[in-house]
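Thread: Modeling a multi-component assembly for a lab meeting

Hi all, long-time lurker, first post. My supervisor asked me to bring a structural picture of a complex we are working on to next week's group meeting, and I have zero experience with this. I have the sequence lines for every component (678 residues in total). Could someone generate the structure of the whole assembly? Inputs are pasted exactly as I received them:
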Amino acid sequence: MPRLLLWGAILFVVLTAIASLFVGPRAITPATTLTALLDFDAGNGAHLLVRDQRLPRVFLALCVGAALGAAGGVMQTLTRNPLADPGLLGISAGATLAIVCLIAATGQINIGASLWAGIFGAGVGGATVFLLGGMTKTHDPVRLVLAGAALSIVLMTLTRVITVNAEAHVFDQFRHWAVGSLQGRGWDVLWPSIWLTLIGGLAAVALARPLDALALGQDFGQSLGADPRRVWFAAAAVIVVLCGTATAAAGPISFVGLAAPHLARHITGPSHRALLLLSMLIGAALVSVADLAGRLIDPAAQIDVGIMSALIGGPIFVALARRLKMSGL
Amino acid sequence: MTTAPNIVLRWRGWSLLLARRALWLNIILFGLLVIGSTTALMLGRLPIGTQEIWQVITGNAPSRAVEHVLIDIRLPRLLVTIGAGAALGTSGAVFQTISRNPLGSPDVIGFTAGAATGALIWIIVFGGTGANVVLAAMAGALLTGVGVYLLARKDGRVSAYRLVLTGIGVGAVLHAINALLLVKGDLDVAISANLWLAGSVDGRDWGHVWPLWLGLIALMGPMLLGMRPLGMMEMGDDLAGPLGVPVERVRRWMLLGALILAALATSATGPIAFVALAAPQLARRLGRAPTQPLIGATLFGACLMLGADLLTRVAPFDLTMPIGQVTGIIGGVYLIWLLAGNRLRNGAP
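Re: Modeling a multi-component assembly
Sure thing. I ran the full set together rather than chain by chain. Output:
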């Protein structure tokens, strides 16, 4: 991978993140924002806003984007399907169902509690799919994808049945969560997300070499010394942790996990270490740009990050699909 | 794997190859469809027996009420259900063959999202209701389809892979627009839009039946003929071309046909989960067919929809169970059951 490009991408992500600190529904002067960061005064409302709302939100955007990018990269290799989105493996659908149950039961959404409900749902959904689709003797990627699609659909339809039958305010709460949003996420959501993403991301990079071997095909990979069973299990766990965390923290953000590895693969080629790193960077860039753009367009109402990332990423993706000769797997 | 011997019918210069296993599958599916349809006509608040159905068919209805219920309420609903299922199954089979990907169903490629965008804009922005929603959905799906095709076209060619990728990109944008409409829309309108998005065959009349069935009848023949060259194209464009397949032309017309079928079905019922994805897979795997069996997929789609409709009507829940959701649950659970028991042969994807 061209080194210059890597540093360029990192610089871009950092600049976007810094810019995000200065934008929000309440106008706070850049000078005040800077003092809030450097010389924090707990009695100052504006300082509190920057410290407790904007700062965690910026980090969460990076964290969610990176997690989705890495999960997508691993997932596309594991299923040997370039259309595989980590959301397809029952992970997003599991988190969504868990959270709609929580909202329907308690009548309101509590971001802190919903994080853990989401992680629980994602874990159960993802584990079921991998047990159904992969943990037999043969690791048939098509089976995995079908199992994921089947379970996702079942969970999503259950979710819709609940929203159709529940009272109006349940649907109202749910529709705001279901588009994927970073609004109102504070440090209590950020810390667990950062840790889980860090663990998952490192594990993904550690898996890069076995994944390289596995990408050659199962027989080939095995003769190169990768134990397919163990790699499968580890990769599945990584996907569940990364995508589950991202979904639980920000709601189901589709498309980032599909598009980021795609773009990354075009630049890096099939080597997984570079692919996963760049994929995380692209994911982080896409989500933070989307979040920033959503706040810039309409500071008061804010367009949610899940919507913005598809609105921004979609056309880029289509343009690239047109222009470039995209590599398959 | 042992393959059942095939049956070859010959007549002058024509010959027809029938795979025995697939033939049996189709006969069974057709039988199920007939039984299911009869049951669907009998079920309801006004109980109608098989004898009365026969009397209505032969033209001497026992009473006005029975005739009205049967002809104006239950029959259109039944026809919409079966027609939508058949259209989605067929459309899914074609899309999966063209994209060479089991995920290449019209839902994944964004056409369903386009239909939903059309309907949502109509419901939420213009406050429209009723029959016009059908037209709006249809316009949305067709515009999306043509847009995706044109965007994926390059140098006069549309590669299957680029088509799918473009569809995913466009679909993502449309999904985002749908979500935006749902989130920013007024809560009451958003709730009714959510209900449309769940997919339903309640209260469908002959106005819904005609476009769907005319489309089906007109398109099934050409699609069946086109399936053979399309099957050859699964080997790759470079191989199919020299075998005499006009690759680009077959793909364009088959895509257009599949698109129209998906649009007709979605506009009549709202988005129906999973039928287009599951029906071709089930037909292919249970029939152990080497290429996509179109008729099997069509029948499977119709059976899935009909089964879902029957289930929503006899289910003892005190819940609104829109058919689009029940198909998702039935199809999904069935596919999971097949996968869990290792009952699926590892056929080609």
